[in-house]
Specification:
alpha+beta; Beta-Lactamase; 4 domains; five-stranded antiparallel sheet; elongated
Length: 396
């Protein structure tokens, strides 16, 4: 009966009860036909709307997948509903581990404190928050800028929230380095010029009047002036090096040779430090400033020797990724390691883990690697110590 022809009408007229029944039947079939048409039309519209919703959903997924910002959304109960690829990469997590879980069950330590702080501010009526965040992700220091927004439906009811965040690690680092380079340039320019005449004057006074005065205080003061002028000049030279003096002299080099030359400097006097090297066979020639790169390796090996306290192992490993065309240099030591807090500031000027350090060594290393269009980072060396990783592009 449901598949019957509802457009059929009985063509028979009479004034008795049969006629009334026929009219009722014709009227009923007509209404049923109209209802079926409306249901079919509604079904078609619903199918079309579902298709449009699915198309919109797929489009949003494609957009979220391809934008560089990290995006995480939660419902009004705190359950994590979506996370895009950028967020997975930035936080080094897998969506399978956190989707459909409450953020309180997923986040720990400082992350949970920040989430609870956001939750408290939202409960007090704040719908938009902007928060800077520093964290260590897989042993690497990261700086993020978070944008938190609550989500409301057409009835102005809270249905959840979305967190959008950007990795500003390299941007902040570049800004700080640029500021420090300007400071270093001015110090090198203003301080270096008067140092030479001060030193020469002290030496002349000692030569001319040393024998006549014959006083230990006079001689000691003259020697102190010369000695400390040399110390200041060394500091200024380091500032000048950090400020990109002199210009790079780039030539085709074999980075293995630069590493071997660096290791040769430490063969004497470090009996309890075993410095090893391991080179892949397919490492190409690189366009480098040999002196600058050697200075970078010397600074890194110096730090490694200090970290092992002159007793331990240092391994310099060089490999080549033929697909990405990147030469990777790893300098690993078995020392005391570097804390997550120290990692966040390690390459910044005037930060040092050494008691006598001036805090420019690793800043200069970072500057040299950046000038070669490379990157440098630090991570834990398993089972102990620290590992500096340098990646340099290999241009054909």
């Amino acid at each position: 009966m449901t598949d019957g022809d509802l457009n059929y009408q009985i063509d028979f007229e009479t004034d008795d009860e049969i006629g009334t029944l026929i009219k009722s039947f014709n009227s009923m079939t007509k209404e049923l036909a109209t209802g079926r048409e409306q249901i079919a039309l509604s079904g078609e519209m619903l199918k079309q709307q579902n298709a449009e919703l699915e198309k919109s959903r797929q489009y949003i997924e494609i957009v979220l997948k391809n934008i560089s910002a990290g995006v995480i959304s939660i419902d009004n109960k705190g359950t994590i509903m979506t996370i895009n690829k950028a967020a997975e990469s930035m936080l080094d997590i897998n969506s399978r581990d956190i989707l459909n879980h409450n953020f309180k069950d997923v986040l720990k330590n400082d992350y949970l404190k920040i989430a609870n702080k956001i939750n408290t501010q939202v409960a007090q009526g704040q719908e938009t928050l902007k928060i800077p965040l520093s964290a260590t992700v897989s042993g690497a220091p990261k700086h993020f800028f978070l944008n938190f927004n609550t989500l409301k439906n057409d009835q102005d009811k809270n249905v959840g929230a979305v967190l959008v965040f950007d990795d500003v690690t390299e941007l902040e680092k570049a800004q700080r380095v640029a500021a420090w380079r300007e400071v270093a340039r001015r110090i090198a320019h203003e301080v270096k010029n008067p140092l030479t005449p001060i030193k020469l004057s002290a030496q002349r006074l000692k030569r001319k009047y040393g024998k006549e005065i014959n006083d230990d205080v006079f001689t000691s003061c003259a020697d102190t002036i010369v000695e400390h002028v040399d110390l200041i000049k060394n500091l200024v030279n380091q500032f000048a090096a950090f400020a990109k003096f002199p210009d790079a002299n780039v030539t085709q080099c074999r980075i293995e040779n630069i590493v071997l030359e660096t290791i040769a400097l430490y063969r004497e006097g470090l009996e309890n430090v075993d410095i090893k090297s391991r080179f892949a066979e397919n490492i190409p020639m690189l366009k480098l400033d040999q002196q600058h790169m050697k200075q970078a390796f010397i600074n890194l090996v110096d730090n490694a020797v200090y970290a092992v306290n002159k007793k331990g192992t240092i391994l310099i490993d060089i490999s080549y990724d033929e697909i990405l065309k990147i030469v990777r240099i790893e300098i690993a030591d078995t020392g005391k390691g570097i804390s997550d807090k120290e990692k966040t500031k390690l390459f910044e000027p005037y930060f040092s883990t050494k008691k006598s350090g001036m805090g420019l060594g690793l800043a200069i290393v970072h500057s040299i690697i950046s000038d070669h269009n490379g990157v440098i980072r630090v991570q834990d060396n398993k089972p102990e110590g620290a590992k500096f990783i340098i990646e340099l592009p290999a241009y054909s």
